[in-house]
Amino acid sequence: MRHAEQLPPEDLARVLAEDADARGDRAAVEIGVAELAAGTAVRIRRRTRQPGENGPDGNHASVSVEYHLPVPGTTAYLLLAFSTPLEPIADAMAGLFDAIAGSLTWTE
């Protein structure tokens, strides 16, 4: 009996980028592959307009960062998702999210 094989992170990144292109929101999404201590992961940074009172047009943006990380020995992926509604400090918060994701390690 053949076991299912895990989708490589590079292939997942390509599929997610094609999906973003098809939806027309590729400009607001950055998709790439990142090397973390726990292995190769797909990293997605997304800027989403939100209704609110903070922007000149009554809107503001939230920023989210996701990591899709293959779980060793399985076909599963672990999803780490972070977001901030604080657009002025989004880059600093994304750096914090990157540091947290980069500290993940697997144990047996």
Per DSSP E runs of 2 or more residues, the count of β-strands stands at: 4
Low-confidence stretches: none
Rg over C-alpha atoms, rounded to the nearest angstrom? 16 Å
The largest β sheet comes out as:
4 strands, antiparallel
Structural class: alpha+beta
Proportion of strand residues: 35-45%
Distance between the termini: 26 Å
Which helices and strands, and how do they pair?
Blueprint: H1 9-23, E1 29-36, E2 39-51, E3 59-70, E4 77-84, H2 90-102
Antiparallel strand pairs: 1-2, 2-3, 3-4
Task: Explain what you see.
The chain is globular. Helices cover 26% and strands 38% of the residues. It has helices at 9-23, 90-102, and strands spanning 29-36, 39-51, 59-70, 77-84. It has a four-stranded antiparallel β-sheet, sandwiched between helices. It is of the alpha+beta class.
Give a quick summary of the entry.
The protein has 108 residues and is of the alpha+beta class. 26% of the residues lie in helices and 38% in strands.
Descriptive tags:
108 residues; alpha+beta; 2 helices; globular
